[in-house]
């Protein structure tokens, strides 16, 4: 999607993938700097470690506690995070304004951090439900402390106990890996009978595009969509950091959908 975007933007650039072992991360960053590259993205398991390896950190990356985008400029490397804003852009594109939502976020890992911070910054009420409840409490406490206030709370980690909260929510976000290929028959811990027509389900998973959670939500009258929009938007925002111009998110999402081969929205 990045190469299609660079072509569309008329940029003489190329985006390539490297597999970097954790122990090699500091040397990889220095290598990129020495080579004079404009920027890089990074993903699991490097996002948190990069916080300590950059010269400057954006406010967003600091809040989330993770870096997904590196920008090399004037000999310095800056760490940015475009996941939270990418998530919000995808949500808005799906017709959901995050402001004032009553949201339940499933999961408390790296992806959840960006989503929880983004939603809380928009003034949404956020309840985090995680299999390991201590991780949910830790994330809620940290985000509340950093943003001030009590917008983020902890929800039960067990599906059965989560029902009443989901029944009252209007946004459910799955940030867990449950339902991702190859475990396509798995459903994250949420009771199917709590999914209702007033609920919008955002599943960060994009492989497969139609997870069991999304299919179940649809069968219960809820609306929802998959994570291809967030993937495209975080990439379009990264391109903006590198070139000064936002990448063509729609085209980038089309490339993802063509690659994964299915329809867009539930
Ligand atoms: P990421 O950075 O992609 O968010 P992660 O930090 O490994 O990845 O987090 C994965 C999330 O999915 C966690 O919230 C994890 O729950 P735990 O904190 O209890 O490990 C959740 N998860 C993964 N597999 C799960 C499963 N089978 N059932 C419930 N939750 C699961």
Explained architecture:
The structure is a single chain. By secondary structure, the protein is of the alpha/beta class. Helix content is 41%, strand content 15%. α4 packs across α5 and α4 crosses α9. The radius of gyration is 18 Å and the shape is globular. It starts with a helix and ends in a 6-residue tail after the last helix. The relative contact order is 0.14. The site of 2'-monophosphoadenosine-5'-diphosphate has 16 residues, from α5.
Notable features of this structure?
4-stranded mixed beta sheet, 10 helices, 6-stranded parallel beta sheet, 266 residues, binds 2'-monophosphoadenosine-5'-diphosphate, alpha/beta, 10 strands
Number of continuous helical runs: 10
Secondary-structure element series: HHEEHEEHEHEHEHEEHEHH
Strand content: 15-25%
Number of strands: 10
Give the neighbour order of strands across the main sheet: 7-6-5-8-9-10
Shape: globular
Helix-strand makeup class? alpha/beta
Low-confidence stretches at least 5 residues in length (pLDDT < 50)? none
What value does the Rg take, in angstroms? 18 Å
Report on the biggest sheet. 6 strands, parallel
| Beginning-to-end CA distance, first to last residue | 22 Å
Catalogue the ligands: 2'-monophosphoadenosine-5'-diphosphate
- pLDDT average, as an integer? 96
Residues in helix, %: 40-55%
């Amino acid at each position: 999607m990045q190469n299609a975007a660079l072509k569309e933007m008329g940029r003489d650039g190329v985006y390539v993938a490297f597999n970097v072992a954790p122990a090699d991360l500091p040397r990889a960053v220095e290598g990129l700097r020495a080579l004079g590259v404009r920027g890089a993205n990074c993903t699991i398991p490097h996002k948190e470690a990069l916080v300590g390896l950059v010269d400057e950190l954006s406010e967003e990356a600091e809040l989330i506690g993770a870096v997904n985008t590196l920008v090399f400029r004037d000999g310095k490397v800056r760490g940015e995070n475009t996941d939270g804003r990418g998530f919000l852009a995808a949500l808005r594109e799906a017709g959901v304004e995050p402001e004032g939502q009553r949201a339940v976020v499933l999961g408390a890992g790296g992806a959840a951090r960006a989503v929880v911070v983004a939603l809380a910054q928009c003034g949404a009420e956020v309840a985090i439900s995680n299999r390991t409840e201590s991780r949910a409490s830790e994330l809620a406490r940290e985000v509340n402390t950093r943003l001030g206030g009590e917008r983020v709370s902890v929800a039960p980690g067990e599906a059965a106990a989560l029902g009443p909260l989901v029944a009252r929510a209007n946004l459910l976000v799955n940030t867990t890996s449950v339902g991702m290929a190859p475990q396509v028959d798995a459903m994250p811990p949420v009771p199917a009978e709590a999914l209702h027509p007033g609920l919008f389900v955002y599943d960060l998973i994009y492989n497969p595009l139609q997870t069991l959670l999304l299919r179940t939500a649809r069968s219960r009258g809820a609306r929802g969509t998959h994570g291809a929009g967030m993937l495209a938007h975080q990439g379009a925002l990264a391109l903006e950091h590198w070139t000064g111009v936002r990448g063509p998110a729609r085209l980038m999402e089309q490339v993802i959908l063509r690659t994964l081969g299915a329809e867009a929205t539930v």
